[in-house]
Amino acid sequence: MRVKGSSASRRKLKKLFSITKGYWGRKKNVYRKAREAYLKSLTRMFHDRKRKKRDFRRLWIIRINAAARSNGMQYSVMMNGLKKAGIAVNRKMLADLAVHDAAAFTQLVSKARQALAV
Q1: DSSP string of 41-52?
Q2: Which domains does the chain have, with CATH numbers?
Q3: Alpha carbon distance 118, 109 (integer Å)
């Protein structure tokens, strides 16, 4: 007995092509190229979820460093001073303060300076 899988095959193709709809060139409408591109995108998704954490940490450090330097202190020196002062604020919150509340950030810099002077 012969089984024709036309509807199942069509469903499979449509599902893949709907996933690869925005891709460029043959990667959106040729099954083999679309499947290869889709599988490659899955690995990139995994790697970029890991990369996102690194990128945001770098961005926060850059923002903190810029704000610290505008207050006359380097990033590493400021972080050391905050640690000695017993102030535990994560980099995400420090970067947010540096961007949105410069007065509060300046107070933290002065606390770090006092802790280093002692």
Answers
A1: HHHHHHHHHHHH
A2: 9-117 (1.10.1900.20)
A3: 15
Mean pLDDT, the chain, rounded, equals 94
Instruction: Please measure the distance between the N-terminal and C-terminal CA atoms of the chain and give it in whole angstroms.
Output: 89
- How big is the chain, counted in residues? 118
The type of residue at 36 is E
- Burial of residue 50, with CB atoms counted within 10 A of its CB: 0-12 exposed, 13-18 middle, 19 or more buried: exposed
For the chain, state the CA radius of gyration.
26
**Sign of the torsion angle spanned by Cα atoms 70, 71, 76, 77:** positive
20-73 pLDDT, tens digit each: 999 999 999 999 999 999 999 999 999 999 999 999 999 999 999 999 999 999
Which residue in 54, 82, 56, 55 sits closest to 68, CA to CA? Answer: 82
Residues of the chain by 3-state class (helix, strand, coil), percent to 5: 80, 0, 20
> According to the model, what pLDDT value does residue 74 have?
95
pLDDT at 14 over 80: yes
